[in-house]
Every structure is written in structure tokens, then in C-alpha cells.
UniProtKB/TrEMBL annotation:
SMART domains reported in the protein's UniProt record: HAMP, HATPase_c, HisKA
This protein's record includes keyword Cytoplasm: no
Protein name: histidine kinase
EC numbers on record: 2.7.13.3
UniProt-listed InterPro entries: HAMP_dom (IPR003660), HATPase_C_sf (IPR036890), HATPase_dom (IPR003594), His_kinase_dom (IPR005467), HisK_dim/P_dom (IPR003661), HisK_dim/P_sf (IPR036097), Sig_transdc_His_kin-like_C (IPR004358)
Taxonomic lineage from the root: Bacteria, Bacillati, Actinomycetota, Actinomycetes, Kitasatosporales
Main localization category: membrane
């Protein structure tokens, strides 16, 4: 619309300027031709009255006669012969006469003219040489008498001003009409574009059933038709992917649930075998211990899969209780015999309390500390303090080589392995993912980074106040 308006304004302005220029030239040309023709007629009529050579009195009378020949009385005349000169008005300085015009008259017998701007008005100055022979004006040799005429172009200027006003009055409505047409054209063109923008935004927000009305057969209609086809294909693909994801989650939950019963039986059997392993031969004892360890890992994997399934199904619930956070962290370490393996910096008892789910806080701390002991190096540091904005900050720092930069963005993803060649780990590959879900349910954040002095550092931030439990939701 702006481009259309600019083109319209440029076109109207250019047309107005060219029209004004041609009209102004025509007005001035007509006035100039009229003045020159009238002056030449009067000079031819009055020139025979001049004597040869003329005196000063004759020059003054000739100038007065020429000035009086114009009915409006706007002419001012200067007549010169040799060193003599006379004007139609006494003591008229005739300032409009320029040296260039006088030189042009001296060098030619043709009539010359010049427009002179005097500040408040413009004057037409005409100069010619009087030619006559034997007392009769004719086209013979120059007599040496020169006539200069000054005519103020007040009337012509009034015509030009009126022309400017007329051009302005014509240009403004034309420009307004052009802008109106631009608005109508832009509205007609941009309406489907705006509809396409709204539809695209709706698709981006997840409303995949959004469609556009197809009207006409132009390029915008083709674009709307293509958009509808793309949206339909996208909706179908997303529906299929969601169905596959739901089936995969349901399969994992069903498998995990079905495995719990035989695993419970296997765990009971391996506990009995562990007690009698000392009385078995070495090969059998080694096999028993291997089976026991793998059964524990499998049970942990099944428990983690069940927990992830609860998050995906939105069935995970917080059971909040106001507890001493430092005491909760001490119990987590003591329950896993990590007290002597971890360097702790905790606040005094009851110095930092918060409403959290004790079981889920235990899982968060256990996963982070266990991950540091398993993949990092001792000493492992556990720190708890109150941050700005009433939040509890838990930091776990190990002394290992740190986390590669390419791995950092993926550490909280499920089953992510930084080493593709490593097919088995001591953990389930879900610990950090479960940690992130538990922290998110509390309305907090967890992030991983590398400490400037070496080692990986995991930071958990939990709000110290919560009003009601939050249910988990699928990813």
C-alpha cells in the first residue's frame, strides 16, 4: 500500500510539475510575444519622427511616446544614442537593464529580451536597435538608436500563481483517490495473506485441523489449497506418530508391570542363594552372584520404567510435606551408605525447611549423587543453601573429567549414551530423566554444567513454598 501510494504521489507530482512547467512557459511566451510585437509596431510608427542624429530632447520625447502607447501605463522606456540616453520617467535608474542585454543589442540588430527577478516581482526587459533610412523606419542599417523596455509581469505572475493553486487542488484529490484505491487493493490482496498467517500460527500452536477457505483461482487460492493439503498431511502424520507413541508407552508400562511379579520371585530366590553362596563351589558361587547382580539391575530398570510410565500417563502425584531439607539429604546418604563417600555442606538443623515430596526429593538426590560416584571421581561434594527468591539450591559436584560439551544438552534425555560403543551401564539410563521430571513437578529447575576447576556440577533449584500438589504430565 505504501509503495502504491508513493508511486501515485510521484506520478501525480510529476504530472503536475510537467503541466505547470508547460503552462507557465506558454503564459510567459504569449506575454513576451505580445509585448515584443507591440513594441516593434510602436517603434516602426514613431521612429520616423527622430532626427539624424537625434538630440536629447528628441530621445526623451521618443521614450515618452513609446511608454504612452501602452494603454495600461506599465511600460518604462529607455532610449539611448551614443553617449545620450533618456527615460520615459524622469530620473529613472532603469536598474533592470543588465550589461549582458546591452551588449547583446550592441552586437545584433535582432530584438533581444531577458526576464529579470527584482526580488518582489519579475520584469521582462526587451532591447532592440532602431533601423531606418531616409527618415522612414525600415529594415535598413541600424541608426545607432537603441530602445529598451521594461514591463512588470505582475499579471503573468498572477496567472502562474493561479495555475499552481489549480494544480495543487487537482493533485491532492488525485492523491487521496490513489491512496483510497491502494487501501482497497491492499485489503483485497492482504485479506487472504492475513488469513494464511493466522492459520499458520494456529497450526504452530497445535490446532492441526485448521483449514483455509479457497476462493477464486489466482495464486493466493492455489497457495491456500496447498496449505490445506499440507495441513491435512501433517495432521495425519502427527496423529499416526501420537498413536505410535501412545502404543509404545502402553507397551513399556504393560511390560514393566508384567515383569514385576516374576522379578519379585527371582529376587527372593537370589536372596536365598546369596546367603548360601559361601557354601557353594567357586564357579557356582560366581554364577549365583552374577545372577543376583543382574536381577537387581533388572528390578531397578523395571522400577524406573514404571516411574517414567507414570509421568507419561500424568499419573504421578506429589505428596507434599514441610520437612527439614538438610535432614532429608542426610537420610538419603545414610540409607545408601554414602555418608563417608560424600563431602557435605549443609545448613544447621531446621535452618532451611520447605514443602516438598520427601520420596521424590530422595530420588533426585540419590540419582545425582549416584551418578557422580559412578561416572565422576571422588571427592563428591553435596551442598545445600537458600538462593535468591526463596528457593532451595542443591548442588552435586564431582572431581571427574566433566561432561563433554556435545553431551551436555542431552544428559537429561532418556537412554542417552555419550559413547555409542558402550552398550551396558550400571544404571538404567533413566535416572537423570526421572530426576528432571521430579524437579519439574516441584516447579523447579535442574541443569548440568562443567565446573571451571574441573568436574561436572548438577544444580537443582526448588521453590520453598507450594500451595497444592502438582500432577505429572506426559512429555
Amino acid at each position: 500500500m505504501v509503495a502504491f501510494a508513493l508511486v501515485a504521489a510521484l506520478t501525480a507530482g510529476t504530472t503536475g510539475a510537467l503541466t505547470f512547467r508547460e503552462a507557465r512557459t506558454g503564459v510567459l511566451q504569449q506575454s513576451q510575444d505580445t509585448v515584443i510585437k507591440l513594441l516593434r509596431t510602436h517603434v516602426d510608427r514613431l521612429a520616423p519622427e527622430l532626427g539624424v542624429p537625434p538630440g536629447e530632447f528628441e530621445l526623451r520625447r521618443f521614450a515618452t511616446s513609446l511608454a504612452g502607447a501602452e494603454p495600461a501605463g506599465t511600460w518604462r522606456v529607455l532610449v539611448a544614442y551614443g553617449g545620450l540616453s533618456a527615460t520615459s520617467a524622469p530620473d529613472d535608474p532603469f536598474e533592470e537593464l543588465t550589461p549582458a542585454l546591452r551588449a547583446a543589442v550592441n552586437s545584433s540588430t535582432a530584438t533581444v529580451f531577458q526576464r529579470v527577478d527584482s526580488g518582489d516581482h519579475t520584469s521582462l526587459v526587451v532591447g532592440m536597435s532602431v533601423t531606418f533610412t531616409a527618415g522612414t523606419a525600415a529594415t535598413g542599417p541600424a541608426s545607432g538608436v537603441q530602445v529598451f523596455l521594461t514591463v512588470p509581469q505582475t499579471t503573468e505572475q498572477a496567472y502562474v500563481d493561479a495555475l499552481v493553486t489549480a494544480v495543487e487542488r487537482a493533485t491532492v484529490p488525485a492523491l487521496g483517490l490513489a491512496v483510497l484505491l491502494a487501501l482497497l487493493a491492499a485489503r483485497g490482496v492482504l485479506r487472504p495473506v492475513r488469513a494464511l498467517r493466522r492459520a499458520t500460527r494456529s497450526i504452530a500452536e497445535g490446532r492441526l485441523d485448521t483449514r483455509l477457505d479457497v476462493n477464486g483461482s489466482d495464486e493466493l487460492a492455489d497457495l491456500s489449497h496447498t496449505f490445506n493439503e499440507t495441513a491435512a498431511a501433517l495432521e495425519e502424520s502427527v496423529a499416526e506418530l501420537r498413536g505410535m507413541e501412545a502404543r509404545a508407552r502402553r507397551f513399556a508400562a504393560d511390560v514393566s508391570h508384567e515383569l514385576r511379579t516374576p522379578l519379585a520371585a527371582m529376587s527372593a530366590v537370589t536372596d536365598v542363594l546369596d546367603e548360601d553362596a559361601a557354601h557353594l563351589d567357586p564357579d557356582t558361587a560366581t554364577a549365583v552372584r552374577l545372577i543376583s547382580e543382574e536381577t537387581v539391575k533388572l528390578a531397578r530398570l523395571v522400577d524406573d520404567l514404571m516411574e517414567i510410565s507414570r509421568f507419561d500417563a500424568g499419573a504421578a502425584v506429589l505428596h507434599l510435606d514441610e520437612i527439614d531439607l538438610a535432614e532429608s539429604l542426610r537420610r538419603t546418604l545414610a540409607a545408601r551408605a554414602w555418608t563417608d563417600l560424600v563431602d557435605v555442606r549443609l545448613p544447621p538443623p531446621d535452618a532451611l525447611r520447605g514443602r516438598v515430596d520427601p520420596r521424590r526429593l530422595d530420588v533426585v538426590v540419590a540419582n545425582l549423587v549416584g551418578n557422580a560416584l559412578r561416572h565422576g571421581a571422588r571427592p563428591v561434594h553435596l551442598r545445600l543453601y537458600e538462593g535468591e527468591g526463596r528457593i532451595a539450591v542443591v548442588e552435586v559436584l564431582d572431581s571427574g573429567p566433566g561432561i563433554p560439551d556435545s553431551v551436555l544438552p542431552h544428559v537429561f534425555e532418556r537412554f542417552y549414551k555419550s559413547d555409542a560403543a558402550r552398550t551396558r551401564t550400571e544404571g538404567s539410563g533413566l535416572g537423570l530423566a526421572i530426576t528432571a521430571e521430579n524437579v519439574r513437578m516441584h516447579g523447579g529447575t535442574v541443569r548440568a554444567a562443567n565446573h571451571p576447576e574441573g568436574g561436572a556440577v548438577f544444580t537443582v533449584e526448588l521453590p520453598l513454598r507450594r500451595d497444592e500438589p502438582t500432577r505429572g504430565s506426559g512429555q
